[in-house]
């Protein structure tokens, strides 16, 4: 690595970007103008954000006798509101004041029902936002109820108290607001009625309210008032502006150079590809950090000016500058590397700009999740990329320094790991001539379909493998929504078989038949070595204690919530079924169907990437995501890596099927293990012990199992496996690069 070459490329790219007036305007001028204009616009339109009155139709008794006043001067009584001026927010219209277009009904009950139905229609047509229906004899019935309460000692039957009715519509926002306001008014009126009842019974009014909670906001003394709001806004803006500030310079430095024809000149220079990537990456990071910093500073200054008009909100914490500055470097590095790799893949600047939306769609959920009040910083959330960093910033901005310091190591490790992977991806994009010099293609559906059938390779391509995995996930998603939970064991059998045969196996076989020239080579339908099958079965057995401990650790990190009822329902359905049927259904069937799909069609397609481990990991990720529960997905992805490695090293699908079947069978067996079984087989008692939710292995068993699994893993690693043409080419390129570096 020649640092001088990196500096030269960095200086070249910075000068090139500084000559672009649009870039300079977006980075330096727009933030200075944008946020003050937004603040001014906010102050100007704040008058339209004030609460607006809602129209309420009152049906029933207008004169409520001796009850506390509900209405004053054709409005709700101001004393029923915490702030008397809020009485104007409910505009009242009495039904008795409106002209009648038909004679009243003779039957009082029928007349009341007709008035209520009319009120419902008028709310539904949005003539009124809500309606309050009060029984005509409300005062009399309430008096009888109060008298019955007094005479209850004399065994007087206590009748039902009269209840007003609020008519509203959840399809209309103003109607829901009116409902909330009416509920508040009626609650206050009810308290006044209770007080009047207590006074009539010569009981102290304080008996209805024995205490009132007092409040002290300590945030004002600590200078953290409003920190909770800014702690959600500022980290989100940091991530979004760092991503946006990195993407457009990256598109110009890669896809733009392709269009200008200057990329070939740079690639033909003495600088290595890695030096070119680092130079461009440093340039993009500088612009990313400058964009994020200027936008945050402009928003902070505007925020301080705006919140002066709203003291309850509070100003941004002054120390936020320090924490955001510390987080800016890894955030900029991550998104700069991702943007650089995507921009290198693009054929033109126009195509590169289209890649911003997928990157934003992937990033937004990771940024929005920490804004939820239920999401808090712990070991599990700290291991989620981007989300852990945003949660860490939110915690320290709220004053939780000890919590932030406690989870800083995992957040830093995950963030730096993601940065390293993104930079490696960008370097590999620049090392791939097929990526840098891709030509534009004209879409012709008929020609493309003929090409798929005529020029198909023995195994699917990478794009076809991805398409197969996406089809499986899409079919599984829609079938999961359409199919109802099983009601008996037969329904559970049909549901499991449908998910395996229809959702997973059928798309893989169809893709193999249509897109692959050799089903035998695609699905790895070869005879394995003599010891490969028993070695795979033994590996599943010795690795099982490790898998159980990993599953337990994952559940502690991410507890399963909301699935207890469904799990108990499935357990009840399968409790009385013969165990051999459960093994066939939940161990053997998934082993066959899922292995043919993920270690057959999908893994064979990913082998065209030229990297064995990438093919294994990508197929394992698809395998993990197909499991509905997140906790199962994480363990399934790790198990998928092991099975994929076995499939690649042996060149056959059969050892992977055996491993899969044995692994699932052991998981089912341990779920049905009872203390009586352990007493009957004392060896089991030395290997495992009873826990609250089942059984677990002793740590000695886990360690011995891990050592045995490592030995078997080394044995599989020593097997000579068949490389794909792309893998052989990639190894040749790497050997050539190493020889060049040595020279």
Question: Which properties best describe this structure?
Answer:
743 residues; mainly alpha; two-stranded antiparallel ribbon; 32 helices; 8 strands
Task: Characterise this structure.
This protein is mostly helical and 743 residues long. It has 3 domains: 3-37 and 225-436, no CATH class; 52-207, no CATH class; 519-732, no CATH class. Helix content is 67%, strand content 4%. The chain has helices spanning 3-18, 21-45, 108-124, 138-150, 173-200, 219-222, 227-253, 255-260, 263-267, 273-307, 320-345, 349-354, 356-368, 379-382, 387-397, 401-406, 408-431, 433-436, 445-454, 462-482, 489-515, 519-522, 532-557, 564-574, 579-606, 612-625, 630-650, 654-671, 675-680, 682-687, 699-717, 725-742; strands at residues 54-60, 71-72, 75-76, 90-94, 130-134, 165-167, 688-691, 694-697. The strands form 3 sheets. A 4-stranded mixed beta sheet has the order 4-1-5-6. A two-stranded antiparallel ribbon has the order 2-3. Strands 7-8 form a two-stranded antiparallel ribbon. A hairpin with a 2-residue loop joins strand 2 (71-72) and strand 3 (75-76). Helix 7 packs antiparallel against helix 13 and helix 11 (320-345) packs antiparallel against helix 15 (387-397). The two termini are 14 Å apart.
Number of helices: 32
- Let me know the number of strands: 8
What number of structural domains do the residues give? 3
* Rounded radius of gyration (Å): 35 Å
In short:
With 743 residues, this protein is mainly alpha-helical. The protein contains 32 helices and eight strands. The radius of gyration is 35 Å and the shape is globular.
């Amino acid at each position: 690595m020649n640092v001088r070459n990196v500096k030269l490329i960095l200086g070249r790219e910075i000068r090139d970007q500084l000559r672009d007036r649009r870039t300079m305007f977006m980075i330096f001028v727009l933030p200075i103008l944008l946020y003050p204009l937004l603040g001014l616009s906010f102050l100007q339109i704040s008058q339209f954000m004030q609460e607006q009155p809602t129209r309420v139709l009152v049906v029933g008794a207008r004169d409520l006798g001796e009850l506390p006043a509900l209405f004053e001067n054709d409005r709700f009584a101001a004393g029923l509101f915490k702030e008397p001026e809020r009485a104007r927010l409910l505009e009242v219209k009495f039904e008795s004041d409106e002209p009648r277009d038909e004679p009243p009904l003779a039957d009082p009950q029928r007349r009341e029902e007709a008035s209520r139905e009319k009120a419902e229609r008028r709310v539904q047509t949005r003539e009124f936002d809500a309606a309050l229906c009060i029984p005509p004899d409300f005062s009399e019935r309430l008096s009888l109820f109060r008298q019955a309460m007094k005479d209850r000692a004399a065994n007087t039957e206590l009748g039902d108290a009269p209840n007003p009715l609020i008519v509203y519509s959840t399809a209309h926002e103003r109607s829901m607001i009116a409902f909330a306001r009416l509920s508040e008014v009626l609650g206050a009126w009810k308290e006044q009625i209770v007080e009047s009842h207590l006074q009539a019974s010569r009981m102290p009014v304080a008996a209805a309210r024995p205490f009132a909670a007092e409040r002290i906001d300590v945030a004002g003394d600590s200078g953290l008032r409003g920190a909770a709001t800014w702690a959600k806004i500022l980290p989100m803006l940091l991530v979004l502006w760092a991503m946006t500030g990195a993407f457009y310079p990256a598109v110009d430095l890669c896809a733009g150079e392709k269009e200008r024809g200057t990329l070939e000149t740079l690639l033909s220079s003495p600088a290595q590809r890695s030096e070119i990537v680092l130079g461009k990456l440093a340039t993009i990071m500088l612009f990313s950090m400058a964009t994020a910093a200027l936008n945050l500073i402009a928003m902070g200054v505007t925020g301080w000016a705006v919140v002066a008009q709203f003291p309850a909100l509070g100003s941004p914490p002054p120390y936020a500058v320090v924490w955001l500055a510390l987080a800016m470097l890894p955030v900029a590095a991550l998104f700069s590397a991702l943007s650089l790799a995507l921009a290198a893949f693009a054929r033109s600047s126009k195509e590169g700009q289209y890649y911003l939306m997928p990157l934003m769609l992937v990033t937004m959920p990771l940024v929005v999740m920490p804004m939820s009040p239920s999401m808090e910083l712990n070991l599990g959330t700290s291991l989620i990329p981007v989300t852990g960093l945003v949660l860490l910033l939110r915690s320290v901005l709220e004053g939780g320094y000890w919590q932030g310091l406690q989870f800083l190591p995992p957040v830093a490790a995950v963030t730096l790991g993601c940065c390293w992977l993104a930079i490696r991806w960008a370097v590999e994009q620049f090392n791939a001539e097929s990526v840098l010099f891709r030509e534009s293609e004209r879409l012709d559906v008929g020609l493309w379909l003929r090409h798929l059938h005529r020029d198909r390779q023995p195994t699917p391509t990478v794009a076809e493998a991805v398409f197969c995995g996406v089809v499986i996930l899409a079919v599984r998603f829609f079938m999961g929504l359409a199919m109802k939970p099983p009601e008996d064991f037969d329904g559970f059998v049909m549901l499991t078989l449908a998910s395996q045969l229809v959702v997973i196996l059928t798309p893989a076989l169809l893709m193999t038949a249509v897109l692959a020239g050799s089903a035998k080579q695609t699905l790895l339908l070869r005879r394995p070595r003599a010891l490969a099958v028993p070695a795979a079965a033994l590996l599943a057995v010795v690795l099982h204690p490790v898998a159980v401990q990993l599953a337990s650790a994952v559940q502690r990190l991410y507890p399963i919530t909301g699935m207890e009822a469904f799990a108990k329902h499935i357990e009840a359905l399968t409790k009385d079924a013969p165990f051999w049927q459960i093994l066939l259904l939940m161990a053997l069937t998934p082993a066959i169907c899922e292995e043919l799909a993920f270690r057959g069609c999908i893994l064979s397609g990913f082998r065209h990437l030229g990297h064995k481990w990438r093919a294994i990991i990508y197929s394992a990720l698809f395998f993990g995501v197909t499991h509905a529960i997140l906790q199962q997905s994480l363990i399934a992805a790790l198990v998928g890596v092991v099975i994929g490695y076995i499939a690649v090293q042996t060149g056959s699908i059969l050892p992977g099927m055996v491993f899969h079947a044995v692994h699932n069978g052991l998981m089912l067996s341990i779920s049905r293990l009872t203390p009586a079984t352990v007493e009957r087989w004392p060896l089991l008692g030395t290997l495992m012990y009873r826990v609250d939710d089942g059984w677990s292995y002793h740590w000695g068993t886990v360690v011995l199992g891990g050592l045995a699994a490592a030995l078997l893993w080394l044995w599989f690693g020593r097997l000579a496996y068949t490389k794909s043409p792309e893998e052989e080419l990639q190894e040749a390129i790497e050997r050539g690069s190493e020889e060049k570096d040595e020279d």
